[in-house]
Design a protein that fits this description.
This protein is about 15% helix and about 40% strand. It has helices spanning about 60-70, 135-140, 200-205, 230-240, 250-260; strands at about 5-10, 15-20, 25-30, 35-40, 40-50, 75-85, 90-95, 100-105, 110-115, 120-125, 130, 150-155, 155-165, 165-170, 175-180, 185-190, 190-195, 210-215, 220-225.
Amino acid sequence: MNNHEIDYKLYGDDMQFVEVELDPNETVIAEAGSLMMMDDGITMETIFGDGSNSGGGGLMGKLIGAGKRVLTGESLFMTAFTNEGMGKKHVSFASPYPGKIVPMDLSEINGKLICQKDAFLAAAKGVSVGVEFQRRIGTGFFGGEGFIMQKLEGDGMTFIHAGGTIHKKVLAPGERVRLDTGCLVAMTGDVDYNIEMVKGVKTALFGGEGLFLATLQGPGTVWVQSLPFSRLASRVFSAMPHNGGSKGEGSAAGGLFDILGGK
């Protein structure tokens, strides 16, 4: 075992958080901003990269690992939480938006999970957080949200989060499924992944589903979310009052917005 062995417990339904139990000297790593609460005796430390030494030893290996994280839009740094007290301690991490937290034991899925770049929440120290580059050039140019994905490798626990309801789909060898690129949360490393253009100009222009779909082929397991954050954000933005427009389209909420001095 290269990763720290951590125990956990999930709380909540639609706005979940995960409580991780750490034995003395055990460490869990997480993205900045995901901390909810922690017991006294747990120390926080900002680390360069993911702390797994997956890029090799020395400064150059750390630079390579951290540089890959920048390509996914993430920070160069992560936060390590270590139990330096006596006895078991707990630290909790919360989802950034409504949805589900999915615990994954990498040792049960051949040590590799590919996920959306914003899906990673936390993991046992030793899990490598890298970048999965797609082989096909078409995926690179037109993949949109599905182009650069994160690659989690190791043999420990990791936690990812998804928006809305999450659905786990097991693909048989040769079985294919097509889905919106934003709805893809994660997949095992043996799934074949590509981007296909939607056929038919009317569908592409007026269908509202975008020009491209992700095509996944088994064998393997896929996790799909019903409410990608990008879709939620676009709906919220479209409902916001804009200068020169209605502040609520005559709704009670719009009237309250006016009373409170909204602009």
